[in-house]
Amino acid sequence: MGVYRALVSVSDKSGVVELARQLIECNVEIISTGGTAGLLGREGVRVRSIESYTGFPEIMDGRVKTLHPRVHGGLLAMRDNPGHMQQMAANNILPIDLVVVNLYPFKQTIAKPDVTIEDAIENIDIGGPAMIRSAAKNHRYVAVVVDPSDYDDVVRQIRESHEIGLEMRKKLALKAFHHTADYDTAIAAYLQKVYGGR
């Protein structure tokens, strides 16, 4: 599957500017959110904001920004299903071929000795896991990257063939599901500790 459009939204911004520059060199359009879009823009990387793509603003202090049919339709559509493609066209949904997402730093937040339950709750990512799971579920058509250590391999494949091979997509999807499982386990363990005795 060719890579023509990427959604990039990361908490850990290690290497993301260089990744984005290389994607642009490969003629990949980048859609991005909040702080990631701001960083890329300041670094001179051409980026389309999520609001301009969805036609809907980020609301509720960023709690709602990527939970939109134009995002998840673009991730979950089966590209060889005529019905899915017709629905995409009817609803002005563009295919998203690559998702680069990592999650709010929940573990780092709860490791702080003075953390409050309110701080912990605000660092429970919702849109990130949803995008990761959508892309990983649909890895037959979409690649998902949750680990900056995979950026070089992904770019290498795009440079060579303008696509990410199925074996790589399988590997990345597996890593993505491990990532979200570990994240949810950390949240459940923390809430068990805080609320478990009540």
Q: Helicity, in percent?
A: 40-55%
CATH topology: Rossmann fold
Radius of gyration: 17 Å
CATH superfamily: Methylglyoxal synthase-like domain
Instruction: Calculate the mean pLDDT score and round it.
Output: 92
- Structural class, from secondary structure content? alpha/beta
Count of β-strands:
5
Q: What is the CATH class name?
A: Alpha Beta
How many separate structural domains? 1
Q: How do the strands line up in the largest sheet? A: 3-2-1-4-5
Inertia-based shape: globular
Low-confidence stretches at least 5 residues in length (pLDDT < 50)? none
**Alpha plus pi helix count:** 10
Order of helices and strands: EHEHEHHHEHHHEHH
CATH architecture: 3-Layer(aba) Sandwich
Largest sheet descriptor: 5 strands, parallel
Amino-to-carboxy terminus distance: 50 Å
Strand residues, percent:
5-15%
Concise structural overview:
The chain contains ten helices and five strands; from the N terminus they run E-H-E-H-E-H-H-H-E-H-H-H-E-H-H. With 198 residues, the protein is an alpha/beta fold.
